[in-house]
Amino acid sequence: MLRLRLLGMYNWSLQDAIVAFVESQKPNWQAQHDLYLSVLYGFVDMQSHLLTLLGFPPVP
């Protein structure tokens, strides 16, 4: 009974909007992936330098 009530409350238009958004991002997927990795590596490198300045030994 609870399952039927939950299915009746499901917002199909919201699901369609999410699917449309995800589909619109597919052409730029590689650029987004590259940007994410470059920002991630930059952040990790910055934190590594900060920890080295604070006296922690560098990790190879």
Describe the structure.
The longest helix is centred in the C-terminal third of the chain and has 25 residues, at 29-53. The mean pLDDT is 86. The protein is built from three helices and no strands. The protein has helices at residues 2-8, 12-25, 29-53. The protein has one domain. 77% of the residues lie in helices and 0% in strands. The chain is elongated, with a radius of gyration of 22 Å. The protein has 60 residues and is mostly helical.
Integer-rounded radius of gyration: 22 Å
Tell me about the largest β-sheet: none
Q: From the helix content, strand content and strand pairing, which structural class follows?
A: mainly alpha
Which geometry do the CA atoms define? elongated
- Overall pLDDT level: 86
Residue windows where pLDDT falls under 50 for at least 5 positions: none
Total of domains: 1
Distance between the termini: 58 Å
Strand content range: under 5%
| Beta strand count | 0
The portion of residues assigned to helices is: over 70%
Give the arrangement of secondary structure elements.
Elements: H1 2-8, H2 12-25, H3 29-53
Give a nutshell description of this structure.
The protein is built from three helices and no strands. It has helices spanning 2-8, 12-25, 29-53. The longest helix is centred in the last third of the chain and has 25 residues, at 29-53.
